[in-house]
Design goal:
This protein is mainly alpha-helical and 75 residues long. It is 67% helix and 0% strand. It is rod-shaped and about 75 Å long. 0% of the residues are buried.
């Protein structure tokens, strides 16, 4: 293979790879529901702040509520 052909193949491979990567990024950005994710994040943050204002401890979703400590009767 001539050096010019090798150089040209390398350039074509680099160009095709670059186009493929750019197309993949565009596809992700088109189909990613950024507005919905931002609204969900805002709602979660607001819920956490409301819980803290009310004095309830903030917990992760799905975690069990802490059990109260058993009190021992005084003698």
């Amino acid at each position: 293979m001539k050096p010019a052909q090798s150089s040209r193949r390398l350039w074509m491979l680099a160009a095709a790879s670059s186009l493929l990567m750019m197309a993949a990024c565009v596809t992700i950005n088109i189909y990613f529901p950024a507005a919905a994710a931002e609204k969900a994040a805002d709602r979660i943050i607001e819920e956490v702040y409301n819980l803290r204002r009310e004095g309830a401890p903030a917990q992760a979703p799905g975690s069990a509520a802490p059990k109260p400590a058993a009190s021992t009767p005084s003698k």
